[in-house]
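Tokens for chain A. Residues wanted.
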């Protein structure tokens, strides 16, 4: 596949780039400036302003799938994820590319699949207040994606870790992964690549965890 990856220099995006290349895909990595991505014959690195649809349209034009791994590192109010999702979906529409996979967060949605303590205490009373700014931004990115005309898959992940990959992960469609507390970034990257090749995941919210 031809993949365009936004957030390619982030900790999750970096794993995604490496795994995609190892699997034989052609990768366009969109970066904001200086980067440490190693040269590879199937890797094209493009510097672009992800908030400008016109600037990123050329990075998307030939893609089979676009993967948005952008998240904010700000602790206060932020709209980085929302604004980038709006720009990416607009750029995709302008060049006729439809397949998009967006990383989001599972802490915002408490419900089916969660154990009682997580559903009624951990998520609403601990995680929601603690992460409210980033979760609000993720909610905006999800809504922007759903409102677009793209063939989207939204992947909701729990706490991300830099631990070595377990080589497996659990998923749940339109519900939480029971006791899905965390996932390694490398396993999350593997899940994203698997979903990119799975048309059955289009227009679904996929929760993932180790």
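Reply:
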């Amino acid at each position: 596949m031809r993949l365009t990856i936004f957030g390619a220099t982030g900790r999750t995006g970096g794993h995604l780039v490496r795994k995609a290349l190892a699997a034989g895909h052609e990768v366009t990595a969109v970066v904001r400036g200086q980067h440490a991505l190693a040269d590879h014959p199937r890797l094209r690195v493009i510097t672009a302003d992800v908030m400008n649809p016109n600037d990123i349209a050329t990075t998307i034009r030939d893609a089979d799938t676009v993967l948005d791994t952008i998240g904010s590192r700000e602790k206060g109010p932020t709209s980085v994820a929302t604004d980038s999702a709006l720009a990416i979906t607009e750029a995709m529409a302008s060049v006729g590319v439809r397949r998009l996979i967006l990383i989001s967060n599972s802490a915002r949605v408490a419900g089916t699949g969660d154990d009682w303590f997580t559903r009624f205490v951990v998520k609403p009373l601990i995680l929601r207040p603690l992460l409210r700014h980033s979760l609000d931004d993720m909610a905006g990115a999800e809504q922007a994606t759903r409102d677009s005309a793209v063939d989207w898959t939204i992947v909701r992940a729990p706490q991300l870790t830099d631990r070595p990959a377990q080589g497996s992960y659990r998923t749940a469609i339109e519900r939480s992964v029971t006791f899905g507390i965390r996932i390694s970034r490398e396993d999350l990257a593997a899940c994203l690549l698997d979903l990119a090749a799975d048309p059955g995941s289009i227009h679904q919210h996929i929760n993932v965890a180790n």
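The two ends are 26 Å apart (CA to CA). The chain has a mean pLDDT of 95.
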